[in-house]
Automatic annotation (TrEMBL):
Native source organism of the sequence: Roseimaritima ulvae
Molecular function GO terms recorded: inositol 2-dehydrogenase (NAD+) activity; nucleotide binding
Documented EC number(s): 1.1.1.18
Classification via PROSITE patterns: TAT
Keywords: Oxidoreductase
InterPro entries, sorted: Gfo/Idh/MocA-like_OxRdtase_N (IPR000683), Gfo/Idh/MocA_oxidrdct_glycsds (IPR050463), Gfo/Idh/MocA_OxRdtase_bact_C (IPR043906), NAD(P)-bd_dom_sf (IPR036291), TAT_signal (IPR006311)
Keyword Oxidoreductase: yes
Protein's recorded name: Inositol 2-dehydrogenase
Residue span, Gfo/Idh/MocA-like oxidoreductase bacterial type C-terminal domain: 199-452
UniProt signal peptide: none
Residues annotated as domain Gfo/Idh/MocA-like oxidoreductase N-terminal: 79-162
Keyword Oxidoreductase recorded: yes
Length: 455
């Protein structure tokens, strides 16, 4: 049976839930932040570079971190030191995440590994009795999403997907959904998700594996290949690693480990679009690759060149959605979402929400409580706070696995359609591609021997 929270944590979180219903923003967050050390949940983070540290650092005010894990000893050591400075006690450090799952004192894990590791770690964590916060995109394949859903249901664990655009960076997006629900643009006919393209790479040669990196463990479930890197170093976010490689920050550019921009930014904007359209529990009927560019040659859906990035660099995908809504996913134009209806249109992204329906709010505001109705209650200003509140209630948080997987299926199918250079018809009930055995073979992937999921 799953391990229940300790009584003192349970009592504390009951108080959080009671306070959280009192207003739209922040009381629950303040209650979490002001809890005594003995009343805070115990977390561990698996995968620490970039986003791993970002979600950990945002959570110190709500949770204590007992352990960290990473296959890069330099990354692990640096984050152990930073964590000790933040919480005044040193977390245990592990290369092998399984040592964290063996710990009985850890209530939940935060997973920020590369995408191809998400499902294995998440499933094993749930069977070990841990609640899970996992970064987006949640899966590498559609079959992985189905497996995670099955295990969440079987174990009763709470599972938050790290699509923070639904909460802490989401006030404009919640307003956008409220506008649509209030009929401010009439019947929605078209939604365009601008998610940017990416650059290809030069030829990336085989290189010595850095001494601090366990390359075989980093590959894990993915096929065994040589480590590749060029000496030029990345600057800014994701710095400290080669600008071009098949590892670390650059993993998103390879289908072996991720899905390019389609699953990176698509996991944000396609999610909001589906939420706004009210189709988070269904899916499209057809995916058509209108135009796109792949940086290497493909044969039968697989790249034939293995020393360059292989995810799409530019694209325009047409998606036939329920209720005759057309969705366009494009690498052109502004990053954000354009909603078009029979009575108007507006655009929203993380920096702005603009258009006549927005301007009209000055004289015709949304009904009181419209934002809370979208969110399903008081809005958590922090994604971790929402996760911890769900850990108490044993109800799924704002970014649940079911809605996430349904919208991510659109992104996965878009990649498959480009790789095979043809439209795909999708049965949203059976969650299968219609009449295309070759395409259906891309819905799953066999893990490398020795890295199977332990169930």
């Amino acid at each position: 049976m799953p391990r229940l929270p300790q009584p003192n944590r349970r009592h504390f979180l009951q108080g959080v839930a009671a306070v959280g219903t009192a207003s739209l923003l922040s009381p629950a967050t303040r209650a979490l932040a002001q809890a005594s050390p003995n009343d805070r949940p115990v977390f561990a983070t698996i995968g620490l570079r970039n986003q791993g540290w970002a979600i950990t650092s945002k959570s110190f005010k709500f949770a204590d971190f007992a352990a960290l894990a990473d296959v890069d000893s330099n990354v692990l050591g640096a984050n152990v030191e930073k964590t000790q400075q933040k919480q005044s006690h040193k977390p245990d450090a592990f290369k092998d995440y399984r040592k964290i799952l063996d710990r009985k004192d850890i209530d939940a894990v935060m997973i920020a590994t590369p995408d191809h590791w998400h499902t294995k770690v998440a499933v094993e964590a749930m069977y070990a009795g841990k609640d899970v916060y996992c970064e987006k995109p949640l899966t590498l394949t559609i079959a992985e999403g189905k497996l995670i859903e099955k295990v969440v249901k079987e174990t009763g664990r709470v599972f938050q997907v790290g699509t923070m655009q639904r909460s802490e960076s989401g006030q404009r997006f919640l307003q956008a959904i409220a506008l649509i629900r209030a009929g401010r643009i009439g019947t929605v006919k078209k939604v365009t998700c601008g998610i940017n393209g990416m650059s290809g790479s030069p030829q990336i040669p085989v290189a010595p594996v850095p001494e601090e990196l366990d390359w075989d463990f980093w590959l894990g479930p993915a096929p065994k290949v040589d480590y590749r890197a060029l000496p030029e170093m990345r600057k800014g976010y994701g710095g400290g690693v080669p600008l071009y490689s098949n590892c670390h920050y650059a993993f998103r550019n390879w289908h072996e480990y991720s899905g390019g921009k389609l699953t990176d930014w698509g996991a944000h904007h396609v999610d909001i679009a589906c939420w706004a359209l009210g189709v988070s529990d269904t899916g499209p009927s057809k995916i058509t690759p209108v135009e796109y560019s792949l940086p290497v040659e493909y044969k039968d859906g697989h790249p034939v060149v293995h020393d360059r990035y292989n995810a799409a660099t530019s694209f325009k995908i047409k998606v036939d959605m329920p209720n005759d809504v057309e969705m366009i996913i494009t690498s052109e134009g502004d990053n954000g979402i354009l909603f078009e209806g029979t009575e108007g249109r507006f655009f929203v992204n993380r920096g702005k929400i603009v258009g006549k329906p927005v301007e009209d709010l000055k004289d015709n505001p949304l009904p009181e409580g419209a934002i809370e109705d979208v969110y399903g209650g008081p809005v958590s200003a922090n994604h971790t706070a929402n996760f911890i509140e769900a850990m108490h209630s044993r109800k799924q948080p704002i970014s649940d696995v079911w809605s996430h997987n349904r919208m991510l299926e659109i992104c996965h199918l878009s990649n498959i359609a480009m790789r095979l250079d043809r439209p795909l018809n999708w049965d949203a009930d059976k969650r299968q591609i219609v009449g295309d055995d070759q395409a259906n073979a891309f819905l799953s992937r066999e893990n490398r021997k020795g890295y199977e999921i332990n169930m």
